[in-house]
UniProtKB/TrEMBL annotation:
It comes from Marinoscillum luteum. It comes from the Bacteria. This is Intradiol ring-cleavage dioxygenase. One of its GO terms (molecular function) is dioxygenase activity. The keyword Signal applies. SUPFAM superfamilies: Aromatic compound dioxygenase. The keyword Oxidoreductase applies. Residues 1-19 form the signal peptide. Keywords: Dioxygenase, Oxidoreductase, Signal.
Amino acid sequence: MKNIIILLIVLFQISCTSAQDKQVGGRCEGCEALYEYGSRSLNSVDTIPGFEQSAAKMKVTGVIYLNDGVTPAKDVILYIYQTDERGIYRASTDAQGWERRHGQHRGWIKTGSDGKYTFYTFRPASYPNTTIPQHIHATVKPPGYTDYFIDDFYFDDDPNLTPTLRAQDKRRAGSGIVALKRENGMLLAQRDIILGLNIPGY
């Protein structure tokens, strides 16, 4: 019964947004996961499951701006998900919906009037036996627009982030490459997001 209620909430949220919002960003497989927060009350801070147990704790902050790059954007939902420290999208034993593919290390944030967001997580690993850079996936849902993916969060010190890959950066909502610094035993990253920047149809 609980699963049916969650499904109905997700379908209701999708139906409420898709009919009236401007279609932007192109095809976005998995963007439906942005609506899987269910009945949670979202705010500008979230903690990804696994943060407390991790040895590579990380705090990611920034401001989401309107398309002018100056005005803070209110009521924007930011959905993030990532691998674990072995490079696996590991789901919980009772996973439902997109958690079965995105894993349990994910979170939802909703900006206030200052546009700020913060999430506490850990540094993800590359996919096993690959040279794909470490990354955190991100999707946004601004008021009045459909949800769309933005450039992943990448780490500037990752040796797998080659000059060739850096040159392929599409800069959707701005570059996703972040510099990391360490403070009080925690990695810190900062990235501002500009809604609509390099997003088709915006």
